[in-house]
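User: I'm preparing a small set of examples for a lab meeting where we compare how different chains pack in three dimensions. I only have the primary sequence for this one, and I'd like the structure in token form so I can line it up with the others. Please keep the answer compact; I'll paste it straight into my notes.
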Amino acid sequence: MATNIERREHPISMRLPETDVAMIDRAADLRGRSRTDFVREAAVRAAEDVLMENRLIRMSADGFAHFLSILSEPAKPVPEIVEVVKRPAPWEEGYKPKS
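Assistant: Understood. Below is the structure token output for the 99-residue chain.
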């Protein structure tokens, strides 16, 4: 038996200059999205970024001391990163693209 789920959507209205709308429409077209989907996704992503930047992280004094001790330890090399850093850049002599 199918159940009906109530959709709770709230309209948001904005007034934008024609140039902004044109840019949004071009970008939405490139993504294969509608203007509404594109703007909604961009707004939600921006909101998440702001909320994450301002999120309070709580920990005990012991936990914080442990966190600081880990940060104070010497860095350990990651072999994959070391290998990447040692490679010559594409604009440098000796660069060989992977086949």
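A couple of notes for your slides: The first helix runs from residue 18 to 31. The two ends are 56 Å apart (CA to CA).

User: Perfect, thanks.
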